[in-house]
Amino acid sequence: MTTQGNGLHTRVLDTLGLEIAAGEHRPGQVLRTDELARRFDVSRTVVREVIRVLESMRLVESRRRVGVTVRQTGEWNVYDPQVIRWRLAGADRPRQLRSLTVLRSAIEPVAAGLAARRATPEQCADLTECALGMVATSRGQQLERYLEHDIAFHRIVLDASGNEMFARLGDVVAEVLAGRTHHQVMFEDPDPAAVTLHVRLAEAVREGDAAAAERLTREIAVGALHELDVLAP
User: Fold this and answer.
1) How far, in Å, CA of 62 to CA of 70, rounded?
2) Shortest CA distance to 112 belongs to which of 213, 231, 9, 232?
3) Mean pLDDT, range 73-80, rounded to an integer
4) How many whole angstroms separate alpha carbon 170 and alpha carbon 10?
5) How confident is the model over 166-221, as pLDDT tens digits?
């Protein structure tokens, strides 16, 4: 596909994805390929490619003689990073953030405990570097730079667990952290207590203290849920 075609594909995909995630197209509603092509002023080929992507996310299904039908919410691939991004962009953002943060609170402490046992020296060094980066960008409203270090930190913890299922959740956690920042569900500067907890967590992993690593990660999760109570009730 040409660069222009890629741009059209992205525009149609993002628009339809956001609309479905926001409930503008209800479950069971039929989307007609020819109508979508006219609406977006694109070829049917572009529409079919978009539909294939939405099918892979289980947002829609194509059936002969019926068309493209929007699936029930419970059938969606809610772990797909793009689906998470679309859902966080809608009016249901507070509930989505809380649901995803609860998921993190169930998974990340266990991953951190495993990381304390299994992390390589290189991973420990990288984790410490990310923690120091968070400290350095935690003042002066540097949320985008802080976000980079925060995402990298949590990816390392999940990877260092040695469990490939946990590691695959890195993209999910990244979308949660990015969603909080980009939709202003964060204080202008990160909570100093949360920053300190990340530094202490890096130390616990480096020292091989699994119990402390798990406990500190739970404290981070509790703090994140408290922030949501304040900023996105």
Assistant:
1) 9
2) 213
3) 95
4) 23
5) 999 999 999 999 999 998 888 889 999 999 999 999 999 999 999 999 999 999 99
Q: Which two tokens stand for residue 62?
A: 């194509």
| Crossing angle for the helix pair 210-231 and 93-118, to the nearest 10 degrees | 170
Q: In what side-by-side order are the strands of the sheet with 67-70?
A: 30-31, 67-70, 60-63
At position 218, the amino acid (one-letter code) is R
Rounded average pLDDT over 147-176? 96
Task: State how far the Cα of 68 lies from the Cα of 59, in Å rounded to an integer.
Answer: 10
- The rounded distance, in Å, linking the Cα atoms of 145 and 16 is 30
pLDDT grade for 6, boundaries at 50, 70 and 90: low
Residues with Cβ within 8 Å of 73's Cβ and at least 6 positions away in sequence, in order, are 27
> Mean pLDDT, to the nearest integer, of 211-232?
92
Give the per-residue pLDDT at 4.
41
Each residue of 94-110: pLDDT tens digit? 899 999 999 999 999 99
For the residues of the chain, what is the DSSP string, one character each?
--HHHHHHHHHHHHHHHHHHHTTSS-TTPEEPHHHHHHHHT--HHHHHHHHHHHHHTTSEEEETTTEEEEPPGGGS-TT-HHHHHHHHTSTTHHHHHHHHHHHHHHHHHHHHHHHHHH--HHHHHHHHHHHHHHHHTSSSS-HHHHHHHHHHHHHHHHHHT--HHHHTTHHHHHHHHHHHHHTT-S-SS--HHHHHHHHHHHHHHHHT-HHHHHHHHHHHHHHHHHHHHHH--
